[in-house]
Each structure stands twice: as C-alpha cells, then as structure tokens.
Design a protein that fits this description.
The complex is a heterodimer of chains A (271) and B (366).
Chain A lengths: L2 H18 L1 H4 L31 H37 L1 H17 L2 H12 L3 H27 L3 H8 L4 H9 L5 H23 L11 H7 L3 H6 L1 H29 L7
Helix pairs in contact in A: 1-3, 1-12, 3-4, 3-6, 3-9, 3-12, 4-6, 5-6, 6-9, 7-8, 9-10, 9-12, 10-12
Chain B lengths: L7 E14 L4 H8 L26 E14 L3 E5 L6 H8 L7 E6 L2 E2 L5 H7 L3 E4 L13 H12 L7 H11 L16 H13 L5 E5 L7 H18 L2 E6 L2 H7 L2 E6 L2 E7 H6 L4 H8 L6 H6 L40 E4 L2 E3 L15
Helix pairs in contact in B: 4-5, 4-6, 5-6, 6-7
Amino acid sequence: MNRLTYIGIAIAILFILAAIFAPLIATHDVTVQNLLARYAMPSGEHWFGTDSLGRDVFSRVIYGARISLQVGITVVTVSTVVGTVIGAIAGFYGGWVDKFLSGYLFNVVLAFPGLLLAIAMVAFLGAGLGKLIFALCVIGWVGYARVIRGQVLKVREYDFVQAARALGASNMRILFTHILPNAIQPLIVQASLGMAGAVLSEASLSFLGLGIPPPAPSWGTMIEEARGLDILYNAPHVLFFPGIAIALTVLAFNFIGDGLREYLDPKQRKR
Amino acid sequence: MTETNVENLISIQDLKVHYKTGGAGLGSLIAQTFRGFRGAMPVSEPSEANDVKIQASGKKVVKAVDGVSLDIRRGETLGLVGESGCGKSTLGKAILRLTEPTGGQVFYNGKDLAHLSQRAMRDQRKNLQMIFQDPYASLNPRMNVGQIIGEPIRTFNLANGLSVEERVQELMETVGMSRRFVKRYPHEFSGGQRQRIGIARALAVDPEFIVADEPISALDVSIQAQIMNLMEKLQSEKNLTYLFISHDLRAVRHLSDRVAVMYLGKIVELANGKDVYADPLMPYTKALISAVPVPDPEVEAKRERIILKGDVPSPINPPSGCHFHTRCPFAIAECSQIVPQLTEIKPNHFAACIRISPEHPYIENN
C-alpha cells in the first residue's frame, strides 16, 4: 500500500466522521434562511459563505455528507456485489444461462436511459432515501455485471483454471479462488468512478423531487440548486464547496481502490 | 493389439473430439451462399470444396481428434508427436475430460472415463493428472506456492497424516525445490522452477497417470534436460505412466518407450521408440524424422531430407481418404479415396497407409 492509499483512507474517514458528528460540527442550522445575507462570500461567520436563500454552506456540506456518502457507498457496494455475482454466473456457466443474462437481461436494463428508469421506479415506489438507493442499484449493477462477465470469459480459459479442474476443484472453488481474484481488477476502477455517478444521480433525482425533499441538504442537491451562469460568476463558492466535497470523496475512493488493487496483486505487493 | 503379459492402464477406443464452429452467423451464411461459386473463388484446394462439413444448422465441424484408438501400458511413457494443430493436446485433454470428448471411450480401471458423471470423474482425478505446457499460464498468479501445491491435498484430504504444510514441503523437495520458497508467488520464479511447481502440484494427489502436454517446449534447452530428468526420476520412483506430448522429436526419443505419431486428428504410426526413429514406415513419419537435425555437420550436410510441401490442411476441411495424401510424395489416386486403418505392419509396429503391408513394409519399394 502506498502513501496515496493512506491519504485516501484518511479523507474517507474524515468525511465519514464529519457525517456522523454533523450536529456537533455544523455552525448553523441547515434549514434556517437569511434572505438578507444571500450569496454571502466566505467569512468568519459563514466559513463557506451562504447560498441563494442565505443558508450556511459549510453546515450544509457537513450535513450533506450524511446523505451523499450513504447513497454513494450503499449504491456502489450493492451494485458491485450483485453485478459481480450475476456477471460471474453468466461468464462462467455460458450457454443458455449467459444467453439469458447477458444477451437479454443486461441489454433490457441497459436499453433504458438509466436515470429515466430510476425516475419511473421512484415515481412508482414513492420518494425517499431508501427507495432512491434501491432505484440506483437497479440501474447500477448491470455495468459491473458486464465488466465481470467479460473478464470471467477471458480468465476461465487460462491454463491454471484447467489445472484446477484437473485437480478436482469444484465449480464454486474454481470461480471464487481462481477466476474472480484474477478478474476483479477493472471492477475496482469502475466502482471508484461509480461512487461519483451515484452521488450525482442522487442529486438529479432529488432535484426532480424524487429523492430527498428540498430543505434537507445533500451535495448533489446543493449543486443542482446552484446551477446557472450568474451564480458561477457572482457566487462561485455556492457551487465550489459541495463540488470539492464530491471530488475529494471520489479521489479518496480512487486512492483506496488503487491500493486495494495493488494489495490484491502479489506482483505489486511490497513485502 | 498388445502382448498378453503387458497390462494396459488406459485403453482409448475410437475417441473423437469434434467442435462445431462458426455458427449460423453472417460468415457461414456467406460461405453457404458462395458455395456454388467456389470454382471462381481463390481457394487453395478447390477439389476438396465439396467436403466442407456444413451441417443442417449451418455450422462447420472441426475434427480435432477423429477416431483415435490407443492403449497406454502401465509404467510406460507413450510419446505423442505431431505438428502444431494436429490434435495431440486435445487428445491429452480429452482423456482427462478437460475437453469433453464427443465420441468413443476411455477405459481406466474398468470404467469408461468419457461417460462418467462430472462427480464420478472428479473422484478419478486424483489418479489422472496433467502437466501443462506454459508454466507462466498454468499457475494462478494470486496464490503462493504453498497454496498452489496444497490445493489438491486439501480437496482430496491427502495429507497422509502430515499437515498440509509438511506434505507441501515434502513435495517441493521431491521436485528439487527448496522448502524456503513456500510463501513465494509464481512471478518470483523462473520458467523451469515454475514447471517444477506444476509437477509438484500434479504429484500432490499421488497419480498413476500423467498427461504431460509439451512440458518442456516453453523452457530453455538447459532447463529442458533438467525437467526431463526429473520426470524420469519421478517415473521410476513412483511407477508413473506418462503420455508425453511434444513436437520435440529428440525429447520424445529420449523419454518414450513407445511413440505414436499423429496427423490431423488420427494416429498414423505407433511403435516402440527406437523402431519409429530407426525404421519409420508411414511417409509422414519418415518426413518428421528426417526433419530432426543431426548434431554432426558432416552427416548433416550429406543426409537426405524429405521436405513436405505446404502446411497441415485445416481440420475443418480435412482431405478425403488418407488425410496426408495432399502432401505425401508417394500418394497415388486411391489415397484420396480410401481411409487407411492402423495396421500391424511389423511386430508391434503399426502404421496407417494403404501403400504398405506386412508383406511390403517399405513404400519406396512398392
């Protein structure tokens, strides 16, 4: 593990702690408006300035971590696990199993514009954090499943997989100890990028009123609310701080993913 | 086919591995559409165009192994030689069911391996093992040596009273590796050392029979000798039976008791090792043997070589009759019609060629 990995872990822990202890850290009530102090620049009173309704951006970023991290981490974890299992089954068993899964199911899910499907589902199930996470997982897993399927197709032809079969290893053992460890590398990269996608998708859905109702802050919602050229010119801090929070989160998980990849590869592991 | 006092360990009968290829996709559609126009297309062997096996489903059939019958005797090394793509690796893998045979039988201990259930086959795998060609691809890069060699011991619970770790170290010493390396990963070893790990892994289940699929062809010459010597030593210590697959005729001569020559999915000659080399009968074998360089410049300069024309024809579209007739310097018209059977031309010396017979074993004189 290299230094960047530790930096990534440090940032992630910092953000998670911030989310947990948000009530202690926040300097202002996140829903209290002060229309006289709209778009105030960062100052001693408002560290990150205020937004269009005069709410404290710093406090909203801290509280926003709660929703955004929850959505990001849960969606990526669930999608990755579900996608890996289904993709591995498709690639490993092949035949009609693969024809049904990758030839039919994957394509059906991918054929929908992702966000539209999520909107339809949230509209059907009703708004709320849990339902939003569920909807994002339903559209999210298929990308991971496709990557894993392709990798498994490749790895299962390696000689060491045949050797394991010749040595009497069961299908499950071959899949989990021989194929998957050699197949998950690209998944780690995709998962760390998927984190950003999930945070932003949550923002889009919340903006449409299908996620977390407006006064509650999330990083995505804050960015959605601050859209517009005039805000970018006149009060960039409204956009900047939640944006930086998302960027740092993605960066942190990228570093962690890199470290994980190195750790899993004996060739790169330092002894 | 064999002497009565020799015990067959494995008896292969009419084994076939046919793959369907292509499928009813665009390619085969075009092929079918243009089949009528073959004459106008630049095909190398237009006379054989009609033999392309296009089945009703529109798929072509690759006959990688096409009706091989072979006995492997207990304790012997049977060398299997042939050009690339002749099906020798596929035959080895089909015996072990790493490739599913599509026809025929493989008898071992009175059981037909080719028709065992997957579960029953798994139980047999501790008797039948394989050494792979590429020592870089045949070891899982994410497992250390101890895990690699220990896996089959754990699968079959074969530690023989020792702990798995002790058994692994014992095996490492058997193949000439230091037990200190037990925690190392494959990428830290040279090709020869990796091949030793592969051999130790195969030995872990204490097998009777090992298919060695070109075990030395990926190694340096100096290392090749080490691995061959190791294989010989292990054979005498553990009474192993080998099917030694190789295109290296010198290595096969060195290791094998008997040699089978394969061409396009069929066995064309089978005899004791020294007979195949000293007295080859089938024209293809003659050409193969004559391709081995002699390490003596004077002899090498003078000796006559049989140079074969062209490449091995595609097994999708093998020549009719004797598969070898397209390249055979002795071919006559009948060769393209009659499929030759493996016949005992001399005692214990079998060849598949219609132009030779026990009465007239030498094709040059016929």
